Amino acid sequence: MKKILLAVGLLSIAGTTFAAGKSCDDVKADIDAKIKAKGVASYTLEAVDKGSAADGKVVGTCDGGSKEIVYKRG
């Protein structure tokens, strides 16, 4: 039983690590689908260099963590 729990834990960590390496277009598409499913109509998603998201909310990372996806209403 301990081996199964360890395997599940390692797989979840690996999945998170690989998700950070996804392309920005893929990450933006995933986030866009989630936002649209909640009924939000007017917003923008933009990929910017890490640390330069001054006037938006960071909602994801991409390109191995070198870029951030920024959400802005309106």
Automatic annotation (TrEMBL):
One of the Pfam families matching this protein, by short name: DUF1161
Keywords attached to this entry: Signal
InterPro entries linked to this entry: DUF1161 (IPR010595)
Keyword Signal attached: yes
Signal sequence range: 1-19
Name of the protein: DUF1161 domain-containing protein
Naturally occurring in which organism (per UniProt): Pseudomonas abietaniphila
